[in-house]
Specification:
The protein is an alpha/beta fold. The protein folds into three domains: about 20-90, Orthogonal Bundle (Arc Repressor Mutant, subunit A); about 95-205 and about 360-375, ATPase, nucleotide binding domain (Nucleotidyltransferase, domain 5), CATH 3.30.420.40; about 215-350, ATPase, nucleotide binding domain (Nucleotidyltransferase, domain 5, 2-Layer Sandwich), CATH 3.30.420. The protein is about 40% helix and about 20% strand. It has 13 helices and 16 strands. The strands form four sheets. A five-stranded mixed beta sheet has the order 6-5-4-7-11, with helices on both faces. It has a five-stranded mixed beta sheet with strand order 14-13-12-15-16, sandwiched between helices. A hairpin with a 4-residue loop joins β9 and β10. The chain is globular, with a radius of gyration of 22 Å. The two termini are about 20 Å apart. About 40% of the residues are buried.
Length: about 375
Amino acid sequence: MSQVTTRRRALRPSGKLLQEDARRHHRALILQQLFGEGPASRADLARSTGLTRVTVSDLIAELIEDELLAELGAPAETRVGKPPTLVGLREDATHIVTLDLSVDDRLTGAVVTLGGTVTHRDEQELAGAKGEAAVALLHTLTRRLVEATGARVLGIGVGSPGIVDDAGTVVDAPNLGWSDVPLAAGLHAAFEVPVYVANDANTAVLGEHTFGESGEGGLMLLRVGTGVGAGLVLEGALLHGHHGAAGEIGHVVVDPAGEQCACGRTGCLETVVAVPHLRRRVEASNEPAKELTAVGEQLGAVLAPVVGTLNLHELVLTGPAELLDGPLLTAVDTVIRQRTMPVTGERLVVRTSRLGDDVVLLGGAVLVLAGELGVS
């Protein structure tokens, strides 16, 4: 994908700043400003961050030594007197390895720059592998990606289906046969770089929030792949929920007489909307558009209470465009507006993501950027 040039919005920080974290926090302030607004002079950075010029100069020297920043020379137009020297991110000097485990039949991965440009892609067929076999294939793909970049790897970011705890352990991912799999710990031991693992829908909403077209207001992203899950950014913060299970909408029962779900229950939303089920229904239908409309209407009925309760500004669907864009998306939009108050639907935006298949991969980069540099 091409370099993203739109202004990048930061997530609202959470938690208290400890005194021993002050220097790291100040580094993050500078990096966030440059990440979001582009190159700036030391004086401009001092004004925008509230740090002293001495502190800014000291931190910039450190960040240049760490190969995260570079001096770019004077701006094209300067005032009378000595021109300032701009500094900016060295986006290509350090890379991030990202992995998307949400596709229904394969693992996908990429090498991404600090600015969100994908420089290399790779994938690994699952061929029905589950449990430890799927973990082994993930390590194989990760090794190829690490070997494909000649730059320093800042970290590995992974979007996984299922419930993922703060330590990067996949607590439950039925479609991959995973239960309490320490994914982050295993990858860290194998590759000796920081590893961040999060639910794929949460990862995707971070990618959309940082590198996509999202505006102000609440954002809900519905990720349709092997399973179905949602990520939410409300008032600038990612919603985690109790036990980190916010957004697990795919296992809401919508048809008690429906198909058996991988979670063990019957008629979950996932059995209707997840890619394998949806493709099968469309291929078996004589009227694919009508089938997609029916699924969209059912999905819209499930999402309407969420949109109305949270007064969301944007609902973004991500997954195979040939399934989601068109009749299904139109039906979702129509039903939500029919079932919510006019004030809710008046400015609601229902769309698919322009980031396409890259949304989870770019979200994996955000996991690493936020965890290692304080940038989002």
